[in-house]
Specification:
Structural class: alpha+beta
Order of helices and strands: HEHEEHEH
Shape: globular
Helix content: 25-40%
Number of helices: 4
Largest sheet: 4 strands, antiparallel
Strand content: 15-25%
Radius of gyration: 17 Å
Length: 129
Amino acid sequence: MSAYSLDNVKKQQRSLRIIMTTLVHIDYPFKGPFGPALTEKFKSLAEETSNEPGLLWKIWTENPQQEEAGGVYLFQNESQAQKYLEKYLGKMISNGITEVRARIVKVHSELSDITNAPLSGQTTIQSSQ
């Protein structure tokens, strides 16, 4: 049997999910820019963020109607998430943003797997056709 059998891949995916346990959610008041201008302004920050220790992925969020921005992050463990959050909050405060809402929560891997959460750092899009 090949080392890349379907059973081995599934076992590896399950073991990966076990260590991916911590989600960070951050949002804050933000007057813009939004959309493509946000991408242009924060592209270098996104590239920097992608290199954070333990970060598996970040989803950037924006709400122009409510004038809010933020993100949802998946970290390998709570320690890495906490270190990132402390660093991030320090940067925000030094830039005059003091109304930051942030929380760290554990991910329930088994139930999240049932609802197709992208816990492995890779997303699979399933067609309904």
